[in-house]
Design brief:
The chain is of the alpha+beta class and 340 residues long. It has three domains: 104 residues, RNA Polymerase Alpha Subunit, Chain A, domain 2, CATH 2.170.120; 89 residues, YbbR-like domain (RNA Polymerase Alpha Subunit, Chain A, domain 2, Beta Complex); 78 residues, Beta Complex (RNA Polymerase Alpha Subunit, Chain A, domain 2), CATH 2.170.120. The protein contains four helices and 23 strands. Strands 11, 15, 17, 19 and 22 form a five-stranded antiparallel beta sheet that branches. A four-stranded mixed beta sheet has the order 4-1-3-7. Strands 2-8-6-5 form a four-stranded antiparallel beta sheet, with no helix packed on it. It is elongated.
Length: 340
């Protein structure tokens, strides 16, 4: 009995000791996590200070920049960039370089030709010297012009004298309508535009089209500003570059007229059965009162047909008002007999 009590007490002491060790282990684990977090923050702060220190340093860099010209002389057009890019060597602080890259200022170099001394090389070939650009470009890049150097001494381009021609505009329409509506007519304002460009290109142009106009479920008039499609963007200037397309959309209705069949021009003389046919068509409401039977001429088609060998003839309209559309003749054919 005594031995059993001693055994139970010893087991109780062991369990308490083990649970105490477990609590110590958990405490040590939490301290390690805090130490790791503090260490990570220190590394981040150190890296940040190091980066800021490096940004203040001066670095030599080279960039190839695409050339864009502005303010081309009046009556002239640059048709070819013999030197379409320029490589620049310069020195700048890391702060300035970062700002230039973030704002895209190193992507292209805009050159204002009104501030440049344009020189003739041969024919339509021209050039400007890069030495005359250093001050403006350095100011654009936020550096000292003494720290800037171009790899090329000249930037060459082809510039031609502009000719002009007035060219008619057509509209490229892609339209759909609500039920019982359709396009009555449209106008383009202005109908002609002035196109500037090399004479050899202007001679090939008869008409220019607008960009595609896509509209669905039209049920009324609409004014659409739209760009004129430039087939040679680098060679032609369009003035104005946009036009207004005025769409006149009207409601239409179906109309039916009983039109007599005219056989007066057929020989030998014939008589048709029936003597009239129904002409069905669509007409805009504004034109409804303008349509009369006298405007239609309905005849049997006897061209290259031996009347003694056939029993029916197909009907066709040889005259009808321009205001109607979707014409249907009922019946499309008629029987006949030869009278004389």
């Amino acid at each position: 009995m005594v031995d059993l009590r001693i055994f139970t007490a010893m087991n109780s002491i062991k369990i308490k000791g083990m649970s105490g060790k477990s609590r110590d282990s958990k405490g040590q684990g939490g301290e390690k996590k805090r130490d790791h977090l503090v260490f990570l923050i220190c590394i981040i702060l150190a890296a940040g200070f190091w980066f800021l220190i490096k940004l203040s340093d001066i670095y030599p860099v080279s960039y190839q920049m695409k050339i864009k010209y502005t303010h081309v002389p009046t009556g002239r057009l640059i048709t070819t960039l013999n030197d379409s890019s320029a490589t620049l060597h310069f020195r700048s602080t890391g702060y300035n370089l970062l700002d230039l890259m973030l704002h895209g200022k190193l992507d292209s170099l805009s050159i204002d030709l009104k501030d440049c001394d344009i020189r003739t090389e041969a024919g339509n070939e021209y050039y400007i010297t890069t030495s005359g650009l250093r001050e403006n470009v350095a100011q654009l890049l936020g550096i000292n012009d003494r720290d800037l150097e171009f790899t090329k001494s000249k930037l060459r381009f082809t510039m031609e004298r502009l000719h002009r021609k007035n060219i008619k505009i057509s509209a490229l329409l892609d339209l759909s309508y609500k039920s019982q509506f359709s396009l009555y007519d449209f106008t383009i304002i202005p109908e002609y535009i002035t196109v500037y460009g090399p004479q050899q290109i202007l001679d090939t142009l008869k008409v220019l089209s607008t960009d595609r106009i896509h509209i669905e479920k039209l049920d009324g008039d609409k004014k659409i500003p739209v760009s004129v499609h430039n087939p040679y963007p680098g060679m032609l200037r369009l003035l104005p570059p946009k036009v207004i397309v005025q769409l006149n959309v009207e409601k239409y209705t179906e109309q039916r007229l009983q039109v007599p069949i005219d056989v007066s021009g057929i020989h030998p003389e014939i008589r048709t059965f029936p003597t009239t046919a129904s002409v069905n068509f669509n007409v805009f409401l504004r034109d409804y009162e303008k349509i009369h039977v006298s405007q239609f001429q309905l005849v049997p088609n006897d061209k290259n047909i031996d009347l003694r060998q056939v029993k029916t003839l197909r009907l066709e309209l040889t005259s009808f008002p321009k205001e109607i559309s979707n014409i249907r003749i009922v019946p499309p054919e008629v029987e006949f007999i030869i009278v004389n």
